[in-house]
Structure formats: structure tokens, C-alpha cells
Design brief:
Blueprint (H helix, E strand, L loop, with lengths): L5 E14 L4 E16 L4 E5 L6 H8 L7 E6 L2 E2 L5 H7 L3 E4 L13 H11 L6 H14 L16 H13 L5 E5 L7 H18 L2 E6 L2 H7 L2 E6 L2 E7 H6 L4 H8 L9 E2 L39 E2 L5 E2 L13 E2 L4 H22 L1
Parallel strand pairs: 3-8, 3-9, 6-7, 7-8
Antiparallel strand pairs: 1-2, 1-4, 4-5, 9-10, 10-13, 11-14, 12-13
Helix pairs in contact: 3-4, 5-6
Length: 359
């Protein structure tokens, strides 16, 4: 894709499965099996899907934390898979990662100042000790912490503060791309909102590009510009965030969206429930990989592997029958919904009145 900061083509990762006394390879787990996507500067691409779909593996492959089985990863036009180790190490200054568990990704034996100062030394971004300390203080203030926190250890911080430290460490080397692997899934809802808002403000300030990996579509809706939906190692649908939520096409995408909880308890919604279990990535089904759980399956789905076809407006779907499917499930009026809404409104009004009189 012309002008893309990151371009991934036919990316694969097959993990060998060994068995027997001699450890012979008996098969492969096809964690990522030929995916394409791109990310522009200053854009957020979210990769979503169930646990085990391969989204976290895809993020690690982009950074070469895992070596791909096949495909290409181009960053600013340069194929990362062809770079020698020393050149890839230098390139990692421009590509950073935020892991899911902030405590596991922070060294418990190092102070915050030492952790944030280490990448500055490795990449020669701080000429002296005083410059390094000043830069560490700037990074802490940037993520909403205080410079004196540099003397503390990771166990002295809360979960949300640790994730802020992980973000500060990623920002230390002034990257252009950050792969965020489930960065808020281990946090409370209120802390999730703080971290997402922080990431958005930093993106606007520094022009960062994000690959945001998550299973929580409610979070993704607030941060992503585009969404790629993965299922069993394949991308089955890509579109802008607004378009995907308004007009989901693939049956799997519809099922994911119907599982997003709504904040209004009086609203009743038709759920697109999935049947059966996720097939094994070691022995995926032939044809469309979703056909074993799809309510709209046709004979050809069990034979032909559908490609990801773009409609010309940036919405691509790996289902040749999407135009013939019934409309996606929508919100439906429930019995007594208006009465429930009125009762809830009266309770809220009474609570507000009581609180006002108390003050």
C-alpha cells in the first residue's frame, strides 16, 4: 500500500509440534496463516478476535519478536525480515511494544529511573547522566506521574500506574509505531478509560501509529480508526471503525458485535450466538475456517477458501455470500421497556435530589 508506514503481506507463523522419544515434528499449529494489513502514520489499526485467533502472535511477528514462517513485513518501505540482527536492533527504536501484563514486563530489580534510562543509553539518546535523569522526569510527567517516582520499584505502583510506566518506556526512544498487545484488559474499567485516553492524547501529540490488539470491541471502538477481525489465523473482515459497527458483513464479525454489552439494562438485543467449538489450529477445517460454526454455511464454504475482497470503499470481507445474508441483528424493543426506562429515570432523579439536599 503506497505511503503506508507498515505493510504486512502473506504473513505466516506455523509452530512445529513435536512428539515421540526423538522429538520428531508431527504437525504444525497454524497460528497465523497468510494475513495482509497496513497501517499509516498517525493511524490506529485494531486487530480483534477470540483468544487463540492469532492476533497477539501477529503483533510479535511485526516486531520480529517471533521469526515468521513466511511473508513480508515492510516498515517505511524496508523489508524487516531481510535485515541483519544489528540493523534490526537499530530499527527497533522506531517500533516499540506495550504488553498486556505491565508487572511481568517490568524488571522488579530495577528502579523506574533505571528502566526508562536504559533504552536512552542503548540508542545514544542521552549524552550524560544529568540529561538522562531530565529525560526520565519528562517521560514520567508525560504519562501523568511525578519525577520523584523514578526512585521507586514496580511493586510500589498500582496496575494502572504500571501500565503508564510501560507506555513511558515505549515512548522513551521516540518511536513511530507502537504495538499494544491487550494493554488494558488486565485493568479496572475506570483505569482502562484513563489509559486509552492517555494513548489517544499521546498519539495526537506525537503522530504515533498503533497496532492495538484486543478482544474488547467496546474499547476498540473508542481508539481505533480501522479494525481487522481475525479468526483461526485468518483476517475475515477489515473496515473503518464506524463502518464495521454500522454494517458488519461477515457472520463472525456479527457474532462478536452482538456480544458487546450495552450500558442500558432495559434494551433487549437479538444475539448472534455461535454454535460448536473453535477448530484446532493444528488441523483447521478445509474451505472457510468459520464454516463449522456458521449458521449461513453453504456447500461451497466447506470446499473453497474465500479471499478477502475489498468493495472499493475500504471494506473488505472474506465471505462471498455476505450480500445475500439477512440484516445484522439490531436492538429490539422489549416488553415493558418504556415503563422500565421511566422507573429508572425516576430513581436517578430521586438520587440526584437526595444528593443535592444533603450538600
Amino acid at each position: 500500500m503506497s505511503g503506508a508506514l507498515l505493510e504486512v503481506r502473506a504473513l505466516q507463523k506455523h509452530f512445529p509440534v513435536k512428539s515421540g522419544a526423538f522429538g520428531l515434528v508431527s504437525g504444525h499449529v497454524r497460528a497465523v496463516d497468510g494475513i495482509d494489513f497496513h497501517v499509516y502514520a498517525g493511524e490506529t489499526l485494531a486487530i480483534v478476535g477470540e483468544s487463540g485467533c492469532g492476533k497477539s502472535t501477529a503483533g510479535r511477528l511485526v516486531l520480529r519478536l517471533l521469526e515468521p514462517t513466511g511473508g513480508s513485513v515492510r516498515f517505511e518501505g524496508e523489508d524487516l525480515l531481510r535485515l541483519p540482527d544489528w540493523k534490526m536492533r537499530a530499527q527497533r527504536r522506531h517500533m516499540q511494544v506495550i504488553f498486556q501484563d505491565p508487572y511481568a514486563s517490568l524488571n522488579p530489580r530495577m528502579t523506574v529511573g533505571a528502566m526508562l534510562g536504559e533504552p536512552l543509553m542503548l540508542h545514544g539518546l542521552a549524552a550524560s547522566e544529568s540529561a538522562r535523569r531530565a529525560r526520565v522526569g519528562e517521560l514520567l510527567e508525560l504519562v501523568g506521574l511525578r519525577p520523584e517516582h523514578a526512585r521507586r520499584y514496580p511493586h510500589e505502583f498500582s496496575g494502572g500506574q504500571r501500565q503508564r510506566l510501560a507506555i513511558a518506556r515505549a515512548l522513551a526512544v521516540e518511536p513511530k509505531l507502537i504495538v499494544a498487545d491487550e494493554p488494558v484488559s488486565a485493568l479496572d474499567v475506570s483505569i482502562q478509560a484513563q489509559v486509552v485516553n492517555l494513548m489517544r492524547s499521546l498519539q495526537a501529540r506525537f503522530g504515533l501509529a498503533y497496532v492495538f490488539i484486543s478482544h474488547d470491541l467496546a474499547v476498540v471502538k473508542h481508539i481505533a480508526d480501522r479494525i481487522a477481525v481475525m479468526y483461526l489465523g485468518k483476517i475475515v473482515e477489515t473496515a473503518t471503525t464506524d463502518e464495521l459497527f454500522r454494517n458488519p458483513r461477515h457472520p463472525y464479525t456479527r457474532a462478536l458485535l452482538s456480544a458487546v454489552p450495552l450500558p442500558d439494562p432495559t434494551v433487549i438485543r437479538e444475539r448472534a450466538l455461535l454454535e460448536g467449538d473453535i477448530p484446532s489450529a493444528m488441523n483447521p477445517p478445509p474451505g472457510c475456517r468459520f464454516h463449522t460454526r456458521c449458521r449461513y454455511v453453504r456447500p461451497s464454504c466447506k470446499v473453497d477458501m474465500p479471499g478477502l475482497v475489498d468493495d472499493g470503499a475500504g471494506h473488505a470481507t472474506a465471505c462471498p455470500w455476505w450480500a445475500e445474508l439477512p440484516p445484522a441483528p439490531s436492538l429490539a424493543e422489549g416488553t415493558g421497556q418504556d415503563q422500565d426506562r421511566m422507573r429508572l429515570a425516576r430513581l436517578q432523579a430521586a438520587f440526584v435530589t437526595t444528593q443535592t439536599e444533603a450538600t
